[in-house]
Design a protein that fits this description.
The complex is a heterodimer of chains A (about 450) and B (about 600).
Chain A (H helix, E strand, L loop, with lengths): L1 H16 L5 H16 L11 E2 L5 E2 L3 H18 L9 H23 L3 H10 L1 H11 L4 H31 L4 H7 L7 H17 L8 H8 L2 H22 L7 H24 L4 H22 L2 H32 L10 H4 L1 H14 L6 H16 L3 H24 L15 H19 L10
Chain B lengths: L2 H19 L10 H26 L3 E11 L2 E9 L1 H24 L6 H20 L3 H19 L6 H31 L5 H6 L6 H14 L8 H4 L5 H9 L3 H10 L1 H4 L3 H23 L4 H21 L3 H28 L12 H4 L1 H15 L5 H15 L4 H26 L16 H24 L12 H4 L1 H22 L7 H7 L4 H49 L6 H22 L1
Antiparallel strand pairs in B: 1-2
Helix pairs in contact in B: 1-2, 1-4, 2-3, 2-4, 3-4, 3-10, 3-15, 3-20, 4-5, 5-6, 6-8, 8-11, 10-15, 11-14, 11-15, 13-14, 13-19, 14-15, 14-19, 15-17, 15-18, 15-20, 17-18, 17-19, 17-20, 18-20, 19-22
GO molecular function (chain A): NADH dehydrogenase (ubiquinone) activity
Family (chain A): Belongs to the complex I subunit 4 family.
InterPro entries (chain A): NADH4_N, NADH_Q_OxRdtase_chainM/4, NADH_UbQ_OxRdtase, ND/Mrp_TM
Chain lengths: ~450, ~600
Amino acid sequence: MLKIIIPTIMLIPLTWMSKPNMIWINTTTYGLLISLISLFYLNQPNDNTLNSSLMFFSDSLSAPLLALTTWLLPLMLMASQHHLSKEPLTRKKLYISMLILLQLFLIMTFTASELIFFYILFEATLIPTLIIITRWGNQTERLNAGLYFLFYTLMGSLPLLVALLYIHNFMGSLNFLMIQYWIQPLPNSWSNIFLWLACMMAFMVKMPLYGLHLWLPKAHVEAPIAGSMVLAAVLLKLGGYGMMRITTLLNPLTNFMAYPFMMLSLWGMIMTSSICLRQTDLKSLIAYSSVSHMALVIVAVLIQTPCSYMGATALMIAHGLTSSMLFCLANSNYERIHSRTMILARGLQTLLPLMAAWWLLASLTNLALPPTINLIGELFVVMSSFSWSNITIILMGINITITALYSLYMLITTQRGKYSHHIKNIKPSFTRENALMTLHLLPLLLLSLNPKIILGPIY
Amino acid sequence: MNMFSSCMITALVILTLPIIMSSTKLYKNKLYPYYVKTATSYAFMISMIPTMMFIYSGQEMIISNWHWMTIQTTKLSMSFKLDYFSMIFVPVALFVTWSIMEFSMWYMHSDPYINRFFKYLLLFLITMMVLVTANNMFQLFIGWEGVGIMSFLLIGWWYGRTDANTAALQAVLYNRIGDVGFIMAMAWFQLNLNTWDLQQIFITTNDNFNLPLLGLLLAATGKSAQFGLHPWLPSAMEGPTPVSALLHSSTMVVAGVFLLIRFHPLMEHNQTIQTLTLCLGAITTLLTAICALTQNDIKKIVAFSTSSQLGLMMVTIGINQPYLAFLHICTHAFFKAMLFMCSGSIIHSLNDEQDIRKMGGLFKVLPFTTTSLIIGSLALTGMPFLTGFYSKDLIIESANTSNTNAWALLITLVATSLTAAYSTRIMFFALLGQPRFSPMILINENNPLLINSIKRLLIGSVFAGYIISHSITPTTIPQMTMPHYLKMTALAVTILGFILALELNLTTQGLKFNYPSNYFKFSSLLGYYPTIMHRLTPKTSLTISQKSASMLLDSIWLENILPKSISYFQMKSSTLISNQKGLIKLYFLSFMLTMILSLLILNYHG
């Protein structure tokens, strides 16, 4: 694992020592090279895990997320070039260093083999994210958003620390790889129920569960482009990853503890997607669509069948790439129109036809067009929830319909129709932006050819 | 022997060549539409070889290649099913599309993005081919969704127009409701039969297929615009005419019926689903035929007639005759595409005038279009020995002799007679009588692209039914004996419809309603269905999402319960508990008192 971690650390001196005009290109290139190294972990020769050391390991669940994380850093760098073009050099370098630091923490979080180590890094990712949101956000509301972001996640995860200490006390170890063999079924008692809640709530808030999701739209809307991308693509997946890791410890309590959370998620995904129907703010729409997609992941993880785990993993990767791409597109609109309001950007297809093609493809992947991996993920989730209870198909069906509706509503409002006069003299789309969209779409298309590698531990 | 599969694959690969070409310089070429048309025609000719072989020897085949993935015990691979249905349908669809492509070279010649239009048309066709030849449900679903998305792009081709965008969104929305049924069926098959392969589904038995079949019926309802999910089909007329022709003839709308035909082995013993299908089809065919009676837009009339014919196909499936339904799909493709192309020709000639009240007397200026339109309409009504006769007459006969739901069958008969009525109406108002269009328009139909494409379909509309029904072996035994009055019913109701419509149309010359009657309103407002469903449902759901989901829950309750209330209570309690209240005077006073006191005490002590 050090062969990813050390190059990532070395990116920081690279940033600070590069010549002023080379900071972006250097970091992007080296970031891409690092992401190529992480692809090796996708090859999991045995069913078990690849143990790199006592502290780090990767298995077929963490490897795709790891690849996603490393893939996203160069994309974030590419996306934020315009946003930072007016900043002084030191701040640019500081910004890049923050992104690199975040990536470093994320890599270590996904590969940590010790629960307490995982916990520390999980919390550590908050710091660079908070700085990115509150320092480089566009409006004053960013401070409020940062506050929401920090307090929601901290409130959720502090009980986890207590729970971990308790588990360490009676298990003697917190190593993922070992405790899954040592674990005894938890007896049904009030204290164990609280243990379950303490373990799960941290990740539920991070996902986020409906009801605890308020921080997400705020953070997404206020964050600069790189912040939105990494939040949607990777940070939310920390929740799903953590839940999948920790539910092995909590059996058989999950069987009945899951009910309220399943209900909340199933209800919440419809609520949030219907909120999307009434959004006028483009970034907020994408943020709410993330909440609705993540509700599917929560449902899948709580059902706890091999099929649902496959669905959850596939959906996490698919959604990571898709939502990040949508944020990039929203940002490219924002840089031209200087507003996030959708109606002001209507008719862009006439002016930027290639960008319209990217919009179309991104919307189609968002509504899970076959054979994209989004569909594979959603299909598995729907299948497992259908087998859990036949009635859920009604809720899932409503959600599928509304998802299609708001994705196309977003497409039609921003791209179709007559263009308005204030956008007549906008800049054409840059090669950088087109390359950025291609780099988002390419993995999506290639993974559709061989979705096996992102289906997680069991296939 | 190997010719069979290799020719079929060649035909399919040829279709994809122009798509691959679109990344090269050729895409910028003005000849690109021509390439696409030629590719389609070659694909048609090559696909005829395996079809001939199939007709000759009756061999069927499943091609399985490229293992995609294995999930637990389910193997998913790319596989094509070359059986009766796909082998007959592929050449028909290719032939019809070939003509439509040629027609759109004429119709769309002034469009600046004509190359992209052709690419979309071809993609539309390819997705339909994927759907028809798919051997597993996943592949079928790829085609199924692909058709839906391509229709979205094509209906919304003139994206500057709000109406076009609304119609496109409507099409996707109604289809998406159907897709839920499809996904449910997929989930059910995966859970209970552990497979998505069609042949494995058919050999596995299960006691109760109600649930997945209901899902499939819902899917077919959405795609084939059956009652309840039908309003998108007439709205789809906002797209360019070639798109309507393609959408209504051989792609998209027949996909739903085709799906039910594909899954017929499961349906044939399930009385519940059959009855549902029968009633659904009957309601659709009558309602849409009634709606077609009073429309004035020529494309809308033809669109409603498609909807009515789709209802008839569903009725046929409901009376357990899938092969007849399939035959009707094939024959219907020819004359329906031609009817649309004829109306396209008229619309284009009259400077985009679609209202039949402003036409009239076109038989003098557009003789060829008139001929084709009349033949197409006659074929549609099932005039003996034209294409429509061979399927429609059989359908009505087997409906008359079956002993299921008599009401549904009666409704179907009424709709059949109405078919004749609205066809008469088009002919009467558009073609006959005095011209009512502007005299300044230069009318010219002598373009080889237009003439040839319509001519080809004209020949198809006359002979295709005979050729298809006589060269394929009969798979279900038609009813051989019946009383002569039953035999003549189909013809009798059609002629009745013709005569009545003609008389009524003639009376309109002299007499006029002072005010429209309620029946007229019902028909011209499409049975009030869009008025109710397109206002009430969106309004309530959007209001709920705004008021309750967005404002009440998100902005008020969730915001107040956790963050706001915590900060409020923190603030209150901290002010309550804290000693520091900013009372500077008091603090100083107490400070001074202490100082004085201590000084006094110390002094006194000293």
